[in-house]
Each structure stands twice: as structure tokens, then as C-alpha cells.
Specification:
The protein is α/β, with parallel strands linked by helices. It is about 35% helix and about 20% strand.
Length: about 775
């Protein structure tokens, strides 16, 4: 029997809520072309088809009704006007584009739930109110959404759309041939079976186990855990893999959305009988060295395409993934033997690769872009639909709030791994905005995962794939000028538009929050919990265990001067119970991304004193496009306040991680958060005053040391202080007693005879400062303090 050949076309994290939706027409046209090149071809996506943002929201604008109707009529081969009552709605542009691709399945990712399960149901289910085409309001998804580890039973919005049976992918279609059947078609399942060329292929879906902490999944629940537990997930998936094999299916794909590709790599070795694993949620780019990349996206590949590994039984598994944003069509062409085993040697660079969704790629496939978008083609349908929604969104591009001279970095690979200038700008905006309500707020913390897109444009230059990052460009259609930041820019970047929340934390709790922000950081990882901050600087060492990674931390004022040393050499400094007022996102304050704020409030509600700014009166300026008390409103107001024209444009260019100041990764740079001798000041307080340094005092002496004052001079200043006189003034005429007290304070013991005699003689010789320095900086004192 000849080997069976399959072309699997795929995508992950298409996320068209922002400007990435503009890539969709080229993407659709590439899939359309490639499907005709192979007799056995199927398309799947591993989740996050949708994402909140201006393009997702615009799909509900009444002015788009005609465009949505026309696209669906053309796709279904119906006469113009046949679907005259089809309605617009949030997410329906994305679903229509997905339907054009005729996917075998899409996995439920976390962002499918961001607008709540009611909105998700409205996107997926058919709305047919009678037996004629005039009764059709919406036909829903023409494919199954898959997840084997979600429980929909308690969710009234989704439970009726779910089937536990493993059905053929066609069972999920809602066609116009039978509108009663269309209305009853399921849309959610754990797995499905697709037939191509007389062979059956099974597909099993898996959703991230941390869904509860990163989305709004209502009464839909992850089965068995709310933390990453890949052995448990593997056992859950194996049930459906075994059911497929029992039905004679011996070619099986797991389409998972686990957020970090390392989890899919772990999953592969725990499953038995899987041939292909498609990753999702990580935007990890798998691409060969000579692969033309999409300008401005991920530039560093995680690995070659595909990753070849093995399952639990030692059989070949191909692991695939692409960068998101409708940027790449993945193509895996592979052969299976007569036992359904994947033949690794059948995979080659010519027929297994990525196709960037660019005009140049289109022209190379179709011969020209005109051919790619020929009348009646899928590419043309997608182009007309996207152009229509872009027209609605363009109006928002004419609403300008500020100016920038530089590209504002918001790419996932940066904002989830390092400090960026856009992260700084929006964190600064949140801090400034919060201070309009409460001047005591001193720290702003938000998650990098909430920044979804840069503000600026990427220009390809030359013929080698090089590109330049430039500030936002002029839009003659909207009247926007180069460098201006519009409401569209703000909405595209801060798509979730979280509310802002004020909380009071102890200094120890604040350090705990910082530890959580870097707990999942690692080489190649892009955790959404990674923070972007204002009012604080810290360093971390990801080679240390999670929870013990913060090496240095300090609160700083608007000029960068230290006002509170929180952590030095990994240890909390000073009073851990002292309080700090902060601003964060309402999403995080309620436990999103597993931040511990909700636990703090549950245990100490009165002290935490939560205040949600979206329930307060607006900061009254002219930025009113977004709801008051939200991060979009904060950024718009801040831009108006500080960067309102070209003469005062924001100009802080993004820096590489090696030069970052607010968040310093010690795997990439040396620690410069605190002065090199900060610990010596801490020891000096113990030696002379028998106490921890107070917040103000430590900060003052740290800053004077940074300004160039020597340690010797600082010891001298301590000796001249009133507090020194309280402790040692009465001993000025008794050098031996003075030395004895220094021993008691610093070393917690009596002075040995030799040490006491040595130091007493030095004091008598006028070398008091040298004696204090020697005892304070001794190895024994350092050991005593730990």
C-alpha cells in the first residue's frame, strides 16, 4: 500500500482585534492557492481567532451590515440580497473570514472568552428565525471549536452548543439547505474526525489550564486544575486519542493552546498515538534560517520548522507553530505509512514551510496581486470585508491625543520579556492618572500581556528582509499626521481597556508582587504576567527559584531618585509592614494572571482599601473616547497633558534589554538598581544605631553615595548625628566602653580581649571612623546580618 500524503495548512493566534486583521486577505488568498496544490489538504487553527480591539468591536457597527451580508452571500454562492436580514455583530467579521478558510477545526484559546461566554455564543451559533433565507440573522461558525479539557455543563450560554460525541467536522456546519438543522448544529466538541482522500484524520483540542486567571470564561471550567499540569492534561487527551483509535483513526492531530510552546514539547512525550501537535498561544516562531519573515514580527525563530520529536512509544511527532496576527500560513506536508505512522523523512523544506502574508508572497504564488484578488475569489471576498471594517476604524485614526518621535514597542516578544518604551509610557500614564485621585499613589504595575500591539509602523528596507521601526505614519484619509497617536493606536495596543484600581499593599506584599511578575520568566518564554512598571526599579535573576528572584528593588520618584530601598542582595530591607499605595489593572486586582492582589484583599480588605477608578468621576480633560477610569482613557489624558504637540513629542527610544533600567534581567546585564555599597549603609545603621535603616534615611544616603559622597564621609556624617550622640555620646571619654558597645550592636557579643585592645588604641589615636568601618564591614558582621 502506498504511503498517504497530507498537506496540513495551519495558523495560531490570528487575533484580528487590532491592525493585524489587515493581513487577513493575503492570508486567505495564500491558503486558497495552496489548497489547490495538494489533493489531500486541510486547514486548522490552534486558537485565539479573535481578540478584543477596534476591529473586533467595529464588527458590531450598523454601517457594516451590507458588507457582512455580501461576504456571506458570495461565500455561500447565493444571489445578491439573499441574506438581506443577516446582521452585524462583535466577532462576526473574524468568524466570516474563518469560514472562508473552511477549517477542519479551531481550538478554543483564552481570547475566545475575553468578551464573556454570551458574546462567544453569539459568534458561534446560528440565528435562524424561520425556514426562509429572509429569516437568517446569522449562520455562525461553519466548523467545530475544540477543547477536550473544558466543562461547559454549568454555562447556560455554551452548554447547548456542546457535544461530547466525536463527530465528523461536517456535523458542525450550519448551511442554508436546512435551516432547522442549521439552528441545532453543535459548535463545541472535544474532538472531530476529518476525511481526506478516503483516509480519516482525528483532531483533539486542548485549552490552556490557566484559563481562569487570564480570561473571562464565566461558568465554563477547566477540568481538574487551574494550574499547568501537563501530565494531567496528557491523561485527559489520551482518552480521546484512544477513542479515535478505537474507531479506526490512525492519523491524529492534537491542536493545543497552552500559552508556552515548552508545554507542548513536554506534552508530546506523554501522549501515545499522536502524530502532529500544533501549538498555540505562545506566538513561538518556528522557521528555517532562510525563511522570509513577516516585517516587524518575531525576528528570532524559536526553532526550525517543524520540531521533530517522539511520543511516549517512541513514534515520530511533528510539532508545529507560527507567529500570530494573520502573519503566516504554516504548511506541513507529510506522509504516513500504512499503519498511520508519520514518516519523518517525508518532511522537506520545499513542501513544509511558512508563507508570510505579504503582497510579495502573493505575487510569487499567483503571478500578481490582481490574480490573487480576482473577482469572486476568496481573497477578494476577504479584501472587501476587511476594507469595509477598516473604513469604520479609520474614523478613530483621526482622533489624535499626542505625539511621538519614536516607535513605541509593543510586540509580544518584547513586552512579555523586558521593559519597553510603550510599557513605560502606559505605566507612567496609569500612575499619573491615579495621582489625580490620590496623590499618595507611588507605584504603577500592569501586565505586559495586556499590551497587544506596538504604536508605530514597520518599514521593509532593502531586499534582505531588513526593516525599520518608525513612529505612526500620516493617514491622509483621516487627517492624521506623522508621529501623532490616535484613538485607534491606543485601542489597538490596549485592546482590553482594563479599568484602573488603587490598592494599599505592605512593602513585603509589593515585593511578593514583583516576584510573581518574574516567576515565569525564562529563556524563550513570553508569560503574560511579566510586568511593565512605573515608580519602581528592580533586578531579577531567573536562574534562581521562582519566588526568590528579585535581587534589588527600589521605589523611585519621577526624576529617578530612590525614595525607598525595598530589596538589597535578595533580602527585604526595612519594615515589611509599612504601606505603599499602588495603581494596577482591575483585571490583575481581581486575580488575573494569578497576581496575588485578590488574596491580599480577601485577607486584609480594610487595609488594602480597593478603589476602582471606573466608578469615579472622570479626569476632566478633552479625551473622552474611552470610558473614564480605564487605561485607554489614562493614556489619552496623559498624552494630552505631556505630549500634546510635535514640540513636546515623546522621544524615549526603546532600548535593548541590556540597557533597561526599570526592569533589569541579570542574565543579560549587571545590576545597577542600587549603589554598589548600599549594603554598607544598611550595616552602618545596625552597627551605630542597633536598628534597621529607616526608609527615608536609607534612600537619602543611597542617593548621596550615588552622587559621589564616599563611604568614609558618610560614616563621618553618621558620627556627627544626634542619634549617634544618643547611643555613644556618653562614651566619648571611654574608648574601651565605646568599642564594647560597637561589638554588642554589630556582632551581638562581648569584645574579645585582643580585638578590644586593638580597636581601643585606634580610637585613642583619633581613628574612630576607621574603627567603625572595620567592625561594620567585617566578615563577622556580614555573617550576623545574614
Amino acid at each position: 500500500m502506498a504511503n498517504y500524503s497530507l498537506q496540513l495548512l495551519h495558523a495560531a493566534d490570528m487575533e484580528g482585534g487590532g491592525g493585524d486583521l489587515l493581513n487577513a486577505p493575503a492570508f486567505v488568498s495564500i491558503v486558497d492557492y495552496l489548497e489547490d496544490q495538494h489533493s489531500n489538504s486541510l486547514f486548522i487553527s490552534s486558537g485565539d481567532l479573535v481578540l478584543p480591539g477596534p476591529y473586533l468591536s467595529a464588527a458590531g457597527d450598523r454601517s457594516l451590515r451590507d458588507a457582512v451580508q455580501q461576504a456571506n452571500e458570495q461565500m455561500l454562492g447565493l444571489a445578491p440580497g439573499s441574506l438581506s436580514n443577516l446582521r452585524e455583530g462583535i466577532g462576526r467579521i473574524d468568524i466570516t473570514l474563518a469560514n472562508l478558510l473552511d477549517p477542519a477545526s479551531i481550538t478554543l484559546g483564552n481570547h475566545e472568552f475575553d468578551q464573556g461566554t454570551s458574546t462567544l455564543a453569539d459568534m458561534l451559533e446560528a440565528d435562524t428565525r424561520g425556514e426562509t433565507l429572509d429569516d437568517v440573522r446569522w449562520l455562525g461558525a461553519q466548523f467545530p471549536y475544540l477543547s477536550a479539557n473544558l466543562d461547559f455543563s454549568a454555562d447556560s450560554n455554551l452548554s447547548g452548543l456542546y457535544t461530547a460525541d466525536i463527530l465528523a467536522d461536517s456535523a458542525f456546519d450550519s448551511t442554508t439547505d436546512d435551516l432547522s438543522t442549521a439552528a441545532a448544529a453543535p459548535k463545541l466538541a472535544p474532538a472531530t474526525i476529518v476525511e481526506r482522500g478516503g483516509e480519516k484524520i482525528g483532531i483533539v483540542g486542548a485549552t490552556t489550564q490557566i484559563l481562569d486567571s487570564i480570561s473571562s470564561n464565566g461558568d465554563t471550567r477547566i477540568i481538574g486544575t487551574s494550574q499547568n499540569d501537563i501530565p494531567l492534561l496528557a491523561a485527559q487527551l489520551q482518552v480521546y486519542i484512544d477513542q479515535l483509535r478505537d474507531q479506526g483513526v490512525n492519523k491524529i492531530i492534537v491542536a493545543s493552546h497552552l500559552q508556552q510552546i515548552q508545554l507542548e514539547e513536554q506534552l508530546a512525550g506523554l501522549l501515545d498515538g499522536v502524530d502532529i501537535i500544533m501549538a498555540g498561544g505562545s506566538n513561538a516562531l518556528l522557521a528555517d534560517a532562510d525563511q522570509p519573515l513577516f516585517p516587524g514580527g518575531n525576528t528570532a525563530a524559536y526553532s526550525d520548522y517543524p520540531i521533530l520529536t517522539q511520543d511516549k512509544s517512541g513514534n515520530n511527532v511533528a510539532l508545529i507553530n507560527t507567529d500570530g496576527g494573520w502573519r503566516y500560513v504554516g504548511q506541513l506536508t507529510v506522509e504516513f505509512d500504512d499503519q498511520g505512522q508519520l514518516i519523518a523523512e517525508s518532511i522537506n523544506d520545499q513542501s513544509s514551510r511558512l508563507y508570510a502574508a505579504t503582497d510579495s508572497q502573493l505575487a510569487s504564488l499567483w503571478g500578481s496581486t490582481d490574480a490573487a484578488y480576482a473577482q469572486g475569489s476568496k481573497g477578494q471576498i476577504a479584501q472587501d470585508l476587511v476594507n469595509a471594517v477598516a473604513g469604520v476604524v479609520t474614523e478613530k485614526d483621526g482622533l489624535v491625543f499626542g505625539n511621538t518621535d519614536t516607535f513605541l514597542q509593543g510586540e509580544r516578544s518584547q513586552v512579555r520579556t523586558e521593559e519597553t518604551n510603550l510599557g513605560n509610557l502606559t505605566a507612567d500614564a496609569n500612575l499619573w492618572y491615579a495621582q489625580q485621585y490620590d496623590a499618595s499613589v507611588s507605584v504603577s504595575i500592569k501586565n505586559g500581556g495586556g499590551i497587544r500591539e506596538p504604536i508605530g509602523v514597520t518599514y521593509a528596507v532593502g531586499a534582505e528582509g531588513d526593516y525599520e521601526l518608525r513612529p505612526p505614519q500620516a493617514n491622509p484619509e483621516s487627517g492624521k499626521e506623522t508621529g501623532q497617536i490616535s484613538q485607534l493606536d491606543i485601542e489597538s495596543s490596549l485592546r482590553f481597556n482594563n479599568s484602573l484600581t488603587l490598592l494599599t499593599l505592605t512593602r513585603a506584599e509589593l515585593v511578593q508582587v514583583l516576584e510573581h511578575a518574574v516567576a515565569a520568566s525564562a529563556e524563550g518564554a513570553t508569560p503574560g504576567q511579566f510586568a511593565q512598571v512605573s515608580g519602581i526599579e528592580y533586578s531579577y535573576d531567573w536562574n534562581q527559584p521562582a519566588g526568590a528572584r528579585i535581587t534589588s528593588a527600589a521605589r523611585v520618584d519621577s526624576s529617578g531618585q530612590v525614595i525607598d530601598i525595598l530589596v538589597s542582595q535578595g533580602d527585604l530591607v526595612g519594615d515589611g509592614s509599612a504601606e505603599v499605595r499602588i495603581v494596577t489593572l482591575g483585571f490583575l486586582a481581581s486575580g488575573g494572571d494569578s497576581y496575588p492582589f485578590a488574596d491580599f484583599e480577601a485577607n486584609h480588605g480594610d487595609r488594602v482599601n480597593r478603589l476602582d477608578l471606573d466608578s469615579q468621576d472622570a479626569v476632566t480633560r478633552t479625551a473622552d473616547a474611552a470610558s473614564p477610569g480605564t487605561e485607554q482613557d489614562a493614556l489619552a489624558e496623559f498624552l494630552q497633558e505631556r505630549f500634546s504637540d510635535s514640540d513636546s513629542a515623546y522621544s524615549q527610544a526603546d532600548t535593548p534589554a541590556t540597557d533597561d533600567q526599570r526592569i533589569q534581567n541579570l542574565a543579560l546585564r549587571d545590576d545597577s538598581v542600587l549603589a554598589a555599597d548600599t549594603q554598607s549603609i544598611i550595616r552602618l545603621y545596625d552597627t551605630l544605631f542597633n536598628r534597621d535603616g529607616d526608609m527615608g534615611g536609607l534612600a537619602y544616603w543611597h542617593n548621596t553615595m550615588e552622587a559621589g559622597l564616599s563611604y568614609h564621609a558618610i560614616v563621618g556624617a553618621f558620627v556627627e548625628s544626634a542619634e549617634y550622640q544618643q547611643h555613644f555620646g556618653s562614651l566619648a571619654d571611654d574608648p574601651g566602653a565605646l568599642v564594647e558597645q560597637l561589638y554588642q550592636y554589630a556582632l551581638n557579643r562581648e569584645a574579645d580581649a585582643g580585638g578590644k585592645a586593638f580597636y581601643t588604641e585606634l580610637v585613642e589615636q583619633g581613628q574612630l571612623i576607621e574603627v567603625i568601618s572595620s567592625i561594620s564591614e567585617s566578615a563577622e558582621h556580614i555573617s550576623v546580618l545574614g
